[in-house]
Amino acid sequence: MFAPKGSFSSFSVDDVARAREFYGQTLGLAVSDGAMGTLELSMPEGHRIFVYPKDNHEPATFTVLNLVVDDVEAAVDELNAAGVQTKIYDDPNLPTDEKGIARGMGPDIAWFKDPAGNVISVINPGSAAP
């Protein structure tokens, strides 16, 4: 039977230096240099995420990273103050408020993009209505 020993996630960017600054300085995540020009993001719960350079990078059209927070609105305010735009969707099928927060369709969640155009979210899984 298949039995993996562990797991990690990864996604590409077009500029590792900009990614290092964004994930380390703007988002405040623990970032270290990895092998072959990659970055390693060390997440609070101990997971690792590898960010690798790709010359022909195309931004993901889906959320590549969900950051769990206690208060989505407070997180959005902090992100906006740091220059991160969270109002990235204008879609009647995915209504968001003026801050870009989707509420009442599940957990409170807001999306934004990293410098490479990948979609990231802040989410409070416990905020979903019963």
Automatic annotation (TrEMBL):
Superkingdom: Bacteria
Organism (species): Arthrobacter globiformis (strain ATCC 8010 / DSM 20124 / JCM 1332 / NBRC 12137 / NCIMB 8907 / NRRL B-2979 / 168)
PROSITE patterns, per this entry? VOC
Pfam families per record: Glyoxalase
Which residue ranges does the record assign to the VOC domain? Answer: 4-125
Protein name, UniProt field: VOC domain-containing protein
